[in-house]
Design brief:
This protein has helices at residues 4-26, 47-52, 60-66, 89-99, 106-118, 134-140, 144-156, 179-186, 212-223; strands at 77-84, 126-129, 165-166, 191-192, 200-208, 228-237. The chain has 239 residues and is α/β, with parallel strands linked by helices. It is globular and about 45 Å long.
Amino acid sequence: MPSLRSLASGTARFVSDLGRGLLDVVYPPRCLGCGARPESPRLPLCPQCLQSLERAPEMGVAARLDRLPVGGGVFDGALALWAFDKGGTLQSVQHALKYRNRPRYGVPLGRLMGEAFAERHPAPDGVVPMPLHRTRRLERGYNQSATLAEGAADQLDCPARPGLLDRPHPTRPQTGLSREERWRNVRDAFTAAPECAGGEWLLVDDVLTTGSTAVAAGRTLLDAGADALYLMTLGLARQ
């Protein structure tokens, strides 16, 4: 039986989504970059602003992970779609997706991630979203990484597998923590399902900063028997 808190949260999300849908009819969404009307109401950017986003360096994620004492050798390939600038257009997109109740942006953005991944790697056995602890998910109402994973999986013609990785232990927000503090905060935060053994998986998240969370999640999947592991994020933070 679902808890009263879960039912209340679900009802609040339904009312919020209904209200947001009605507002979008009356006040159609605008591009988060320039304020123009996007061609697709599901994408948060017009074609011009989408084209203006800076692609992340191809080896940028791998170089970032190599700075961690346990980051090397976890992923067979690691990519980010765009460079993430604080205060920039991509941050506006990521904040809308993550904090402002715009989960619908995740699927089309995830498809763009899947398209970029397919340029360099074959399709995996499935796409695994970075999980949230249940308390954080109840507070937010959804997992933004799960919506990105859904879009990436659709583009790559493979299943999204949100059940393969769990986050049973709550952790502090990573913002404001040093590299060492970030790693200590998340190193034991995840568990993996036995079904991940023998598979090749693509782990998906929204933004990579130090890479500590991604490495902790990746090591958990490898320890559970994954054969190969890839990483794809929407943005790569500058450091």
